[in-house]
Amino acid sequence: MINIPEIKVGIVAVSRDCFPESLSVNRRKALVEAYTKKYGSDDIYECPICIVESEIHMMQALEDLKKAGCQALCVYLGNFGPEISETLLAKHFDGPKMFCAAAEENIGVLSSSRGDAYCGMLNASYNLDIRGVKAYIPEEPVGTAEECADMIHDFLPIAKAVYALSNLKIISFGPRPTNFLACNAPIKPLYDLGVEIEENSELDLFEAFNKHAGDPRIPDVVKDMASELGEGNKKPEILHKLAQYELTLLDWIEEHKGYRKFVAIAGKCWPAFQTQFGFVPCYVNSRLTGRGIPVSCEVDIYGALSEFIGTVVSNDAVTLLDINNTVPEELYKNEIEGNAPYRLNETFMGFHCGNTPSGKLAFCEMKYQLIMARSLPEEVTQGTLEGDIAAGDITFFRLQSTADAKLRAYIAQGEVLPAATHSFGSIGIFAIPEMARFYRHVLIEKRFPHHGAVAFGHFGKTLYEVFKYLGLNTNEIGYNQPAGVRYPTENPFK
After folding, report:
1. Under DSSP, is residue 44 helix (H, G, I), strand (E, B) or coil?
2. 3-state SS, residue 394
3. Residue 466's pLDDT is what?
4. In which domain, by residue range, is 26 found?
5. How many CB atoms lie under 10 A from the CB of residue 107?
6. Dist. CA 473–CA 94, nearest whole Å
7. Max alpha carbon distance in the chain (Å)?
8. What is the total count of domains within the chain?
9. pLDDT exceeding 90 applies to what percent of the chain?
10. Which of 12, 70, 257, 261 has the fewest Cβ atoms nearer than 10 Å?
11. Does residue 148 sit in the same domain as residue 176?
């Protein structure tokens, strides 16, 4: 995967000056040893300059972290900790940060070498709040060296996502298609997140595409596409144009990302795209997404943002799907009932025309876009990658701006079932516990659009922390409530 950051977390131990400094020194060493033993040493840096007891120490630690190339920070309370210096360290460190603290090791330390970090974390949290400093604090932030090592490892994908967003540019082409107001949202919250946005006309893209006619790299890309598709290469005549388009997008990224390290694309794909370009871009979108450069459909800017977050958190390809249609009762009874622990109303079909990477499909074929071909010549609708999405765990989620420029999100874990869809496009049968209630009281109630990002695996825990770190109030992060837990808007007498 490309377009994903590598993160190194600097571990800085802190100590209150009336506590033995050796407590923090030895506990930091034990923490680093535990992390290295379990996860290796590539992701962490042990700040050796000092134990931070004062503001001067804090400045020395900041300089050392900068020289070591650390993009994230772990403030480790080996004892009670200096609430001023440790929170100033977090304030002045330019990147994501976390706090955790040392538990007492045994009875022997209680007589004279007690660290009292359980108490110190309370003061650290209070001081972070009055300084307005965001930091990740684990669910149980005080633990043994091994437990704190696990906390830091859990922090890594959170830190990657936060760091990546502050270095992201989203490139869009054209306005949303007509009747797609749901994909339209204010862009100001992107700037609040630190994301840059470059909006272009599809005419700019069309001009760039035409300039790539005859590009000498096209034959190699065609060959690569044919190799990927294998026996599913049912439309070989369109691969040349698709290769030309892929090179256009890749060159555009290199020429337009500017000082940003990472890029996502919100692409135009209809209605005039087919008649002017002569194909649909779905397969190219899938190929870039499969490499780590998410490309959303229908100029869905927040869809691209969500896909990028999922890519970084999962370190894997994602997809963007419509929460599309119900599963017929006939199909449910024939292929799902008795084989999976879900009711009919906990299942649905997630679909898009052909944008899911081939590695996430159980089988795939290059075909034409059936919906568009109802009103256009079939030959200009070729370029979709069709197939059933492979069975396995998934997380359906989205980060979205409301019409009044407030951020909200949802997360729901579930799975793609190993049942044939009997349908077209990139499509799968999804199962999410209590889906019907989640659909009504989160997706509809909170006015989410029909597009959702899909990460392949269960990443709800990490995504929830990412959204909290980004500043979302927890009541703005929807999830599928378990049976027996009522949504605020759910009729208690139903």
Report:
1. strand
2. strand
3. 98
4. 9-165
5. 7
6. 23
7. 84
8. 2
9. 85
10. 261
11. no
The answer to whether 274 and 241 are in contact (CB under 8 A) is: no
Question: Per DSSP, what are the bridge partners of residue 13?
Answer: 76
Both 332 and 216 in one domain: the answer is yes
Please report, rounded to a whole number, the percentage of residues in the chain having pLDDT higher than 70. Answer: 100
- 492: in domain: no
3-state SS string over 423-466?
CCCEEEEEECCCHHHHHHHHHHCCCCCCEEEEECCCCHHHHHHH
Task: Give 304-351 pLDDT, tens digit per residue.
Answer: 999 999 999 999 999 999 999 999 999 999 999 999 999 999 999 999
Output the pLDDT for position 50.
Answer: 65
Q: Which of 132, 165, 198 is the last residue of a domain?
A: 165
255 with 382, same domain: the answer is yes
User: Each residue of 185-226: pLDDT tens digit?
Assistant: 899 999 999 999 999 999 999 999 999 999 999 999 999 999
Q: Using alpha carbons, list the distances in angstroms from residue 298 to 174, 180, 254, 267.
A: 9, 8, 22, 6
Tell me, yes or no, whether 161 and 173 share the same domain.
no
How many angstroms separate the CA atoms of 403 and 96, rounded? 28
Q: What is the CATH number of the domain that holds 244?
A: 3.20.14
Does residue 116 sit in the same domain as residue 187? no
Q: What are phi and psi of 216, to 5 degrees?
A: -65, -15
pLDDT band at 376 (very low <50, low <70, confident <90, very high): confident
Q: Residue 147 to residues 11, 72, 463: CA-CA distances in angstroms?
A: 15, 19, 21
> Cα 416 vs. chain centroid, distance in angstroms?
19
CATH number at residue 75: 3.40.50.1070
Give the domain-ending residue among 142, 165, 188: 165
- Residue from 130, 19, 123, 18 nearest 75 by CA: 123
Cis-peptide into 236, omega within 30 deg:
no
Is the predicted pLDDT of residue 28 greater than 90, yes or no? yes
Token digits for 492? 């208690």
Query: Measured between alpha carbons, how far is 305 from 302 in angstroms, rounded to an integer?
Result: 5
What is the predicted pLDDT for the residue at 377? 85
Q: Does residue 490 lie in a domain region? A: no
